[in-house]
Structures are given as C-alpha cells and as structure tokens.
Amino acid sequence: MRAITYHRYGPPDVLVPGELPTPSPKPTEVLVRIHATTVTAGDYRARSLDMPPGFGLIGRLVFGLFGPRRKVLGTEFAGIVEAAGVNVSRFKPGDRVFAYPGAAFGGYAEYAVIDEASAIAHVPTNLDLNQAAALSFGGATALNFLRDKAAIKPGDSVLVIGASGGVGSAAVQLAKAFGAHVTGVSSTPHLEMVKTLGADRVIDYTREDYAVAQNTYDIILDTSGTATYAKYGTALKPGGRLLLVSADLWQLLASLFACKSGGRKVIGGYAPERGEDLRFLAELARAGKYLPHIGRRFAFDRIAEAHAYFHDPAKRGNIVVTLDPA
C-alpha cells in the first residue's frame, strides 16, 4: 500500500512516499481504506519534535527517544471499511467511517486498522469523507475542554482565542451548540470566517486588547499558547475557567501558583481519544450544529507541502489531505 513515512525528526521534507504491507485486521479490528486525512498539531509536533518550552524531553519519550517510534503519521482519517475481524459487530465492509487514532497515528497511508472499541464512528450522511476526516482532532479537543473540563452550560459567556484554527473553529461551534454566547478572537483576514461559524461577536486582536475586559467571561479557551492567569484572570467572572489547550510548561506552572480568587480556575491537560466523543460529534454534525471548516486541501503526494503550510499565517480551519481524489 502507499504510505508516507518518516525516519527522523525534522522539516516537512523528512516525509517521504513509500510502500508498506497492507495490514490485516485482528478479530476485533476493522481495515479501513483511507480516503482523506489531515495535518494537525499532533502530526506537526511528532514530525518536527517542536514542543512547547519545557516539554522537549516529554516529546521524545512519547514519540521516540532517538527517532520516531511510529513511522506513519496521521492522527485522524476517514474512509470505507474494507474488511472486518470475525468478532466485529458495529461495522461492516462498505461502511463510511471516521477515526481518531491520535498518538497511535496511521492515517498517512492507503489502509489502516483500528479496533472497533477505539475512537471510530460512522460518518453522518450529510458529510462527505473530506469533511469527516477533520471531525475528530479539533472537535474532540474542544469537546473535552468545554464539556468535560469546564462544564459549559447554556448562557455561559465564552471567549475563544485563536478562533480560526482547527481547534478554535470547532470550539466556537460546540460552544454555540451548548447554548453559550461566544466571542471569537482572530486576525483581520479571518474575522468573516469566524462569524460564519456562528460567533456572536468577533474581536480583531490586532486592533483591540481583549485582555482588559473585567469579569466578562465564564470560560476563556486559548488555543494560541499565549494565555496566562496573570494576563486574563481579571477577564473571568467569579467561578470562571481559563482553558489552556496549548501551553508550555512555564505557563502551566505560573498559572498553577498564581493567586486566584473568586473560585476562578486554570485548566490544562489533553483530550483523550474516545469513541463516544466521536459519536457525539457525529450527531452534532448530522444536526447541522458542527461542520469542520476546511481551509485548504492537498493531494496525498503533496503532504510535505501541507505540513509546510501548517504554520502559514494565511492558514485557517483544517488542512485536509486527500488520498482518493474521486
């Protein structure tokens, strides 16, 4: 099968096309013929080992101390079930599915196997496979932080910093789906896009200092890696939660030891890969409440270019890589 592999950490050109044996599903696994995958922050960090300050050693322990432990990246994908193990009951050949292997990776290949009890779900009928490929990473991350960590509820006032990115664009839509009033922060070229996601208000960070707000937000979700409690604590209402989706070690430590008042909290961590979360996202998508924003698509043989584009200032939404143009 066709695959994109890498054998050392480095720039996008470490990703090279090759051929690998097609895997065979175990009794509880399905074999998926992949139609589309994406470039996520997880793929970028595993390829480059460019970790937030303070997490360099942890990155090597996770991804491979002396070189990549997993040779095929791809944290999420969508495709068609080609074969199912003898004990599989939830999926059958021909089913359209999307999956979130996360740090197990595997999406940068023509085929992948995944256990039916893992993060895999049926694609909603109103989405195509390119859209479905981008459902998981941003959606599951935003869902975990907003619902599970922050206990979002109807009427909450939510500020999303980095609202035009993959996680941020999902967070805007999910917060609206939970009945919140959402303010999205982005740069000038992306403001209209954030409005189309459903944000009640947008802030251009190049023109307005949104950190000066006082007792305004129940939840501040930061995807930019710049937020600290010292800077944004006063913008939180009593009992408010600052969610650090992307933060370095020093930000987390500073927030941990900051003098917080009024029941305000700072919450970091990671979002696990869970099948029930994917099914929840699929239901939202089916109801028209969540649609991954695809900023740009690349062909499979241009995946190195897709990785180079990941940090382009013009980037917005999700980067989708299509294996099967048809």
TrEMBL record:
<feature type="domain" description="Enoyl reductase (ER)">
    <location>
        <begin position="10"/>
        <end position="321"/>
    </location>
</feature>
<dbReference type="InterPro" id="IPR011032">
    <property type="entry name" value="GroES-like_sf"/>
</dbReference>
<dbReference type="InterPro" id="IPR002364">
    <property type="entry name" value="Quin_OxRdtase/zeta-crystal_CS"/>
</dbReference>
<dbReference type="Pfam" id="PF13602">
    <property type="entry name" value="ADH_zinc_N_2"/>
</dbReference>
<dbReference type="Pfam" id="PF08240">
    <property type="entry name" value="ADH_N"/>
</dbReference>
<dbReference type="InterPro" id="IPR013154">
    <property type="entry name" value="ADH-like_N"/>
</dbReference>
<dbReference type="InterPro" id="IPR036291">
    <property type="entry name" value="NAD(P)-bd_dom_sf"/>
</dbReference>
<dbReference type="InterPro" id="IPR020843">
    <property type="entry name" value="ER"/>
</dbReference>
<dbReference type="InterPro" id="IPR052733">
    <property type="entry name" value="Chloroplast_QOR"/>
</dbReference>
<protein>
    <submittedName>
        <fullName>NAD(P)-dependent alcohol dehydrogenase</fullName>
    </submittedName>
</protein>
